[in-house]
């Protein structure tokens, strides 16, 4: 590969969940402000690639099928050989996984930045402290800021391409990979059928994996909402980005849609259950609202990602969240955007 027509090449490796990909996009923006003639390449998953392609600060997205054709050590070696053709000046690896760390080691670059909170962090030439008391955006930015000697903790909102057209739909994303991150189906149905919501247009969104959850919600709604649209399982990621971008506001669990909403300037209401905002993955928009239980639960948080079921079988962290809390948040956002 001939890279003689470009300036410095920088690589960002982020092959985690969709939300993690969104939260790493500001790294590319920061690099571009520091090295305007540079070329920024992002290595991510097949699922994450469409999101990264909507970021103007990323010059090229390389898809890494880590659970398919590129799986295993042979896949890591194949990808590393391809990446070495770019002659990267610096490699930044916010993803704290064994796989990503090994891949970073195999890439020929003098500077390799990763977090110290990693079982094989010694593979990086430069280890940066993973500050658990900071937002994930700040943590990711600390890798690129360290290279330029910048100690700032300023949050930079991620940015995705969007049309700029807004409509009156309230977007609801009730799904999550993790069961303990999902507000119960009957609660979503109760919200949709609340008198305040019956006067509003509502769109349900989600991936194919969320279809069963949404169908259960729709069964409970029983066709009683006059302006309800279901797009779950119908849109690809780029279409989902546009739907969220055009919406009045988004209501989501602690999952990827909340981060997409922030990146397209759509106010978001995020519902927290087994996880907590203190982990550093909360929405950072000016109008965003965090919803969590008012009860003091000794069992919460029970996990940093989510679980298949409540460990103590009560699910109080989600069951105790009231519909009125969401309605009040919607009213607050609507009043702020008049």
Q: How would you describe this structure to a colleague?
A:
By secondary structure, the protein is α/β, with parallel strands linked by helices. It folds into two domains: 139 residues, 3-Layer(aba) Sandwich (Rossmann fold), CATH 3.40.50; 168 residues, Glycogen Phosphorylase B (Rossmann fold, 3-Layer(aba) Sandwich), CATH 3.40.50.2000. The chain has twelve helices and twelve strands. The strands form two sheets. Strands 3-2-1-4-5-6 form a six-stranded parallel beta sheet, sandwiched between helices. The radius of gyration is 21 Å and the shape is globular. The termini are far apart. One of its GO terms (biological process) is lipopolysaccharide core region biosynthetic process. This is ADP-heptose--lipooligosaccharide heptosyltransferase II. InterPro entries: Glyco_trans_9, LPS_LOS_Heptosyltrfase.
Task: State Rg.
Answer: 21 Å
* Element-level helix/strand string: EHEHEHEHEEHEHHEHEHEHEEHH
Helical/strand content category: alpha/beta
Helix content: 25-40%
Q: What would CATH call the class of the largest domain?
A: Alpha Beta
Main β-sheet, spatial strand arrangement: 3-2-1-4-5-6
Keywords:
338 residues; alpha/beta; 2 domains; six-stranded parallel beta sheet; 12 strands; globular; transferase; LPS_LOS_Heptosyltrfase; ADP-heptose-lipopolysaccharide heptosyltransferase activity; ADP-heptose--lipooligosaccharide heptosyltransferase II; Glyco_trans_9
List the helices and strands and how they pair.
Layout: E1 9-13, H1 18-34, E2 39-44, H2 49-52, E3 60-63, H3 72-83, E4 90-93, H4 98-106, E5 111-115, E6 126-128, H5 136-147, E7 169-173, H6 185-192, H7 195-198, E8 201-204, H8 211-221, E9 228-230, H9 237-246, E10 249-253, H10 256-263, E11 268-271, E12 289-291, H11 316-319, H12 323-336
Parallel strand pairs: 1-2, 1-4, 2-3, 4-5, 5-6, 7-8, 7-10, 8-9, 10-11, 11-12
């Amino acid at each position: 590969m001939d890279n003689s027509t470009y300036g410095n090449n920088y690589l960002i490796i982020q092959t985690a969940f969709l939300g993690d990909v969104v939260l790493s996009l500001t790294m590319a923006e920061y690099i571009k402000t520091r090295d305007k003639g540079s070329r920024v390449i992002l290595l991510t998953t097949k699922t994450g690639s469409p999101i990264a392609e909507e970021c103007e600060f990323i010059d090229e997205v390389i898809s890494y099928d880590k659970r398919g054709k590129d799986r295993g050590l042979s896949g890591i070696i194949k990808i590393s050989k391809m990446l070495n053709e770019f002659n990267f000046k610096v490699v930044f690896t916010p993803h704290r996984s064994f796989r990503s760390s090994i891949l970073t080691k195999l890439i020929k670059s003098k500077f390799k930045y990763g977090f110290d909170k990693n079982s094989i962090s010694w593979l990086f030439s430069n280890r940066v402290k993973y500050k658990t008391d900071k937002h994930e955006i700040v943590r990711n930015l600390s890798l690129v800021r360290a290279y330029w000697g910048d100690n700032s903790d300023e949050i930079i909102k991620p940015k995705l391409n969007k049309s700029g057209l807004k409509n009156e739909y309230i977007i609801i994303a009730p799904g999550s990979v993790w069961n303990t991150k999902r507000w119960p189906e009957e609660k979503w149905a109760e919200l949709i059928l609340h008198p305040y919501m019956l006067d509003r247009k509502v769109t349900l969104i989600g991936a194919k994996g969320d279809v069963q959850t949404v169908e259960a919600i729709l069964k409970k709604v029983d066709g009683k909402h006059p302006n309800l649209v279901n797009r779950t399982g119908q849109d690809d990621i780029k279409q989902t980005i546009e739907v969220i971008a055009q919406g009045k506001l988004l209501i989501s669990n602690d999952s990827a849609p909340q981060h997409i909403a922030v990146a397209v300037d759509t106010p978001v209401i995020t519902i927290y259950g087994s996880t907590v905002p203190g982990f550093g993955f909360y929405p950072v928009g000016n109008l965003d609202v965090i919803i969590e239980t008012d009860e003091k639960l000794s069992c919460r948080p029970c996990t940093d990602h989510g679980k298949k079921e409540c460990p103590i079988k009560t699910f109080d962290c989600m069951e105790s969240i009231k519909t009125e809390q969401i309605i009040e948040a919607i009213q607050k956002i609507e009043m702020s955007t008049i």
